[in-house]
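Hi R.,

Here's the chain you asked about this morning:
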Amino acid sequence: MILPFTTLLLAAPTPPIVAGTPELAIRAVLVEAHEERAPELSAATFLGLPRPGPGVEFEAQLLPSAAADRVAVQVQVKAKGQLVARRAYELPLLAGISVVVPVRTISAGRKIEAADLTLKSLRLGGPPGRFASTLDELVGKTARVTLLADRPIPLPELRAEKIVSRGEELRVLVHTGALQVTVFAEALEDGALGERIKVRNRTSQRVFAATVSGQRQAEVEAP
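And here is the predicted structure, written out as tokens:
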């Protein structure tokens, strides 16, 4: 929602933040004000403002707002140092999402314990589900890289604890309809519980995929 120009005259804005686009200017001024929630912006938000380009600068300043779930901000545009446009907006704020963060730095290769973690509300970019949101997703897994304290944990940076090692002999339970057959095979890959790994039948030397079901155990559903 665009605010009336009189609001600009009555408000006591914060020092301006200058950027190359209005969105970047607004986000920068929110960071400066320690506002962790992101504004809800769309392509239509800045209709009527000059387009970004060489020599064009956008200044953003926060204005007083009575609504806790909205932010009031003034954007003014300068082209080659001359003021060419000014608008005031009241923008809804996106709620933060709850994610898991380490309470202390976790070194690469270390198994993660519940005492290492806590929940924190943050505003985050990227697709939903990219970061861990429950402790169950992390406890017992191993960090692929060092995980910094108080930072959200990307799920791709984790791996489940390996309970099968390459070269181990496995007891493989093969399910064929109502029948169950046990064969012995060599693990050709490390594997965590529930992971599919390649194994080689000790007798036939045939390589096939099996699902790790326990220590030195795996299962296969035969067609």
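One quick note: The radius of gyration is 28 Å.

Cheers,
M.
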